[in-house]
TrEMBL record:
It comes from Flagellimonas abyssi. The chain crosses the membrane at residues 12-33, 39-60, 72-92, 98-117, 129-148, 154-174, 195-214, 226-243, 250-269. It comes from the Bacteria. This is Prenyltransferase. The keyword Transmembrane applies. Keywords: Membrane, Transmembrane, Transmembrane helix.
Length: 274
């Protein structure tokens, strides 16, 4: 049992779970496009997310995470270097448009943690900006890259889907913001710091409703999209209402981040059995 717990903790601590969540959202985009998933793109997104998140978690935000020993930290670092090599390999298999988009998203991700100048703040330390950077980058990896990979024009439905994905990520981040309220520096001006937990929860519910209603702005709606977005919205509202559970490491790190995986599984299940 102890070994299984250690493996599960590594799965969470090494950002494997969050990487699966991101490729699940990319998989949903491919379903919405009516296109087959590209293994090279999915491989690149998976490994690059692991590298990016581990850099931030164990560099910029290390004080929030309990690393039991330096040896454990080094194992995660070595794992991240291996993932970096795989990310580069898969990126080289992709087209030029993907490279350009990745470079832009990569710069944003880097500036989130590393200041442009030694005396400057990184983007994370600009009050209130952190959550929007993460939402934009996740939307970029899970919507923009699949659209570019499929060779589809950036039309109206793309814009709606991109904004919806940003809203989804914003809502998914809120439980982490609430959980981290006790650790976050007040200068960050996170939403729970500015609005309080109750108003942040209300905001999350409001964003969830906008996320769902925006579906009706699209010119072309996937046959199962309305029902599956409704189910997803109910799951998000349930999480936001679970205030006490947000203090649990496993509830936030596993169950909240599993929501996009659950969403992708719903798409896969409905398309294969309906």
């Amino acid at each position: 049992m102890r070994t299984l717990k250690a493996i599960f903790d590594f799965y969470l601590d090494a950002s494997i779970h969050v990487a699966i969540a991101v490729i699940s959202m990319a998989g949903v985009t491919f379903h919405l496009l009516g296109s087959s998933s590209d293994i090279n793109l999915m491989g690149f997104v998976f490994f690059s997310v692991i590298v990016c998140y581990n850099f931030i978690k164990y560099g910029v935000e290390a004080y929030k995470y309990l690393i039991v020993s330096n040896a454990y930290h080094k194992v995660i670092q070595m794992f991240s270097f291996v993932c970096f090599a795989f990310a580069v390999y898969f990126l080289l298999q992709l087209n030029r448009d993907i490279w350009i988009a990745t470079a832009i998203l990569g710069v944003l991700s880097a500036l989130y943690a590393v200041p442009l100048l030694p005396s400057a703040n990184n983007l994370r330390n600009l009050a209130g900006l952190k959550i929007y950077i993460v939402a934009f980058v996740w939307a970029g990896f899970s919507v923009l890259l699949p659209v570019l990979d499929a060779g589809i024009e950036l039309h109206w439905d793309f814009a709606v889907t991109f904004i919806q994905r940003m809203l989804l990520v914003l809502v998914l981040i809120l439980p982490f913001e609430i959980r981290d309220l006790q650790w976050d520096d007040k200068s960050l001006r996170t939403l729970p710091q500015v609005l309080g937990i109750k108003n942040t929860t209300r905001l999350g519910i409001g964003l969830t409703l906008i996320f769902f209603l925006m579906t009706f702005l699209k010119d072309s709606i996937h046959q199962h999209e309305i029902v599956l977005r409704l189910i997803l919205s109910v799951a998000l509202i349930f999480v936001l209402a679970s205030k006490k559970r947000m203090q649990s490491k496993y509830f936030v790190m596993f169950w909240v981040e599993a929501i996009p995986i659950f969403w992708f599984c719903l798409f896969w299940w409905t398309e294969n059995y309906f």
